[in-house]
Design goal:
The structure is a single chain. This protein is an alpha/beta fold and about 325 residues long. It has three domains: about 180 residues, Peptidoglycan recognition protein-like (Lysozyme-like, 3-Layer(aba) Sandwich), CATH 3.40.80; about 45 residues, Membrane-bound Lytic Murein Transglycosylase D, Chain A (Roll), CATH 3.10.350; about 70 residues, PGBD-like superfamily/PGBD (Muramoyl-pentapeptide Carboxypeptidase, domain 1). Helix content is about 25%, strand content about 10%. The strands form two sheets. It has a six-stranded mixed sheet, covered by helices on one side. Strands 7-8 form a two-stranded antiparallel ribbon. It is flat, with a radius of gyration of 25 Å. About 35% of the residues are buried.
């Protein structure tokens, strides 16, 4: 079982968009859509309301310009963004059929101008948790509506990524000819196999032969293992191939600038910094526009929601950031 809810994604609607899959024995897949709209927070909010009103919710709504992400329902249940293929319910095909609506237009592929960030990487990590490969089995999605091809056999038998234009029973041609390689590169790629950190000496080995086998300079091996000429080696001896890595240090959150920046009438770059962090943490739904440098009710509502998520109430969740709110907000 893969990831059901993406950490940090805004919860959209009541979380009950569909039901169990019809063919859980078939491979899991992803379907990419575009909303045929603009992007940004105002469009995000408008499209989110519209999709719920017409009962056509995907799993994910994503903004390629702001990296804002929202989720309508668990990834292991069906969504509502596809038409049936005759009697076959395409929304319920496979172990999972993760559907993503991207704020953009098919005629202007979003991979040509987007700014993917941590939320996009979280999305792709959730997709990969279902065993979905970094591949488009039906090829690159079509450039035009007339070029769209829908192969029922590929759809039913292959796991991977599909454009809406490649799903049988459907007539839309979104998301357009997106750059599929860019999609996977922005996700950080698949995890490479770690290179060995040690080598066990075998009979007949020399530093030069070990260097050729491992791709590590013999001089580096000699230095790491404090070997000196004539560099004696014994079968069974374990040699280090790389220096021990230092544990990563967590970046320190920015210092709290003071309560005076967060009150009625205040205008400060610190307000913008606060707002952007709130959007990253999944509280962007409170902003119709922005965030910006002027302290507004939207800022206070977003801060209050974050404070309540910490389990605070009363004066501790009044919507005005103090040192502890600031520390927690920026420490994740």
């Amino acid at each position: 079982m893969g990831t059901q809810w993406i950490a940090g994604a805004e919860r959209l609607g009541d979380g009950t968009i569909g039901g169990p899959m019809d063919s859980p024995g078939r491979p899991a897949r992803v379907v990419w859509h575009t909303t045929e709209s603009g992007d940004g927070n105002a469009s995000f909010n408008a499209v989110e309301r519209y999709l719920r009103q017409i009962g056509a919710e995907p799993h994910i709504l994503y903004c390629p310009a702001t990296d804002r992400i929202g989720q309508f329902g668990p990834l292991g249940h069906s969504a509502r963004a596809l038409r049936n293929d005759g009697a076959a319910r395409t929304n319920r095909t496979g172990k999972a059929c993760i559907q993503i609506e991207v704020l953009g237009r098919a005629g202007k592929p979003f991979t040509g101008y987007w700014e993917p960030g941590p939320n996009f990487r979280k999305l792709m990590a959730a997709i990969r948790s279902w065993g979905i490969p970094d591949a488009f089995p039906a090829g690159t999605p079509a450039k035009t509506a007339s070029a769209a091809k829908r192969d029922r056999n590929i759809w039913l038998t292959k796991g991977g990524h599909f454009g809406h234009s490649q799903v049988p029973g459907n007539d839309h041609w979104d998301p357009g000819a997106i750059n599929t390689k860019a999609l996977f590169l922005a996700a950080g790629g698949t995890s490479p196999e770690p290179k060995p950190s040690t080598y066990t000496v075998k009979s007949g080995d020399t530093l030069s032969s070990i260097g050729r086998k491992t791709g590590v300079s013999w001089k580096v091996i000699a230095t790491l293992n404090s070997l000196k000429s004539p560099y004696p080696l014994k079968p069974g001896q374990v040699l280090k191939l790389k220096a021990p890595s230092k544990p990563p240090t967590k970046p320190k959150p920015p210092a709290f600038p003071g309560r005076q920046h967060f009150k009625a009438g205040a205008v400060s770059a610190h307000v913008t910094t606060l707002g952007r962090q709130l959007v990253k943490r999944g509280y962007g739904r409170y902003y119709k526009e922005g965030p910006g440098p002027r302290w507004t009710d939207a800022d206070r509502s977003a801060v209050r929601a974050f404070q309540r998520a910490q389990g605070w109430a009363g004066a501790d969740a009044d919507g005005y950031p103090g040192p502890e709110t600031w520390r927690r907000l920026f420490s994740a």
